[in-house]
């Protein structure tokens, strides 16, 4: 009788140990699978980030063209806290026009100034695009990231800085034409209207762009020219099958 109880007890003990071993084995297997999933996700993320970095690097120092747009000289700023924070631009509700307030400077000069802020750290400033005195268009920041240009409207607008030959802030013909073409193309691309194109002045009251704050008639004419350009872009893209 006693022997039978001992045997049953040993069998129960053996069964318990077996169940414990199975539980431990399952826990270990689950841990291995979980670790594998985590490592896989990290690998995928790393590969994706490297591809994005490679794509961005490939855009640097390239001249690219799109139907209806002026030629873009893509010279993206390095990501840094002072001119290109790398913050995503979740939505685009408008386009803000600026002037450089540095008479006679080129688009390259202004782009390089933005780039240099990562070292000088004197202020936070940048723009998505800079248009030069010869009508050249330099892109400094991707259109899916914010720039430091338009204060509280940084989060939902694209910015365009324009060079000018003198203190009046009046854009010469080459700069003006590229501005009209770029603005019209951006409006068509992001489903905007000329009413969505504003001056820095309309955001903060700052006299920028100077000539087009002091001459409302010139600003109204610019918006009319943008309306015409939007139609031209739509026509060109339709003909190109885009």
Quick tags:
Amidase_domain; Lysozyme-like; 7 strands; seven-stranded mixed sheet; alpha/beta; 242 residues
SSE blueprint:
Elements: H1 2-59, E1 62-64, E2 72-74, E3 94-99, H2 107-120, E4 129-131, E5 137-139, E6 157-162, H3 173-189, E7 197-199, H4 200-204, H5 210-214, H6 216-239
Parallel strand pairs: 2-5, 3-6, 3-7, 4-6
Antiparallel strand pairs: 1-2, 4-5
Helix pairs in contact: 3-6
Transmembrane segments: 27-47
Domain N-acetylmuramoyl-L-alanine amidase: 82-222
GO molecular function, one term: N-acetylmuramoyl-L-alanine amidase activity
Care to describe what's here?
With 242 residues, this protein is of the alpha/beta class. It has six helices and seven strands; from the N terminus they run H-E-E-E-H-E-E-E-H-E-H-H-H. It has two domains: 1-59; 60-239, Peptidoglycan recognition protein-like (Lysozyme-like, 3-Layer(aba) Sandwich). It is 51% helix and 11% strand. The radius of gyration is 30 Å and the shape is elongated. Residues 45-60 have low confidence and may be disordered.
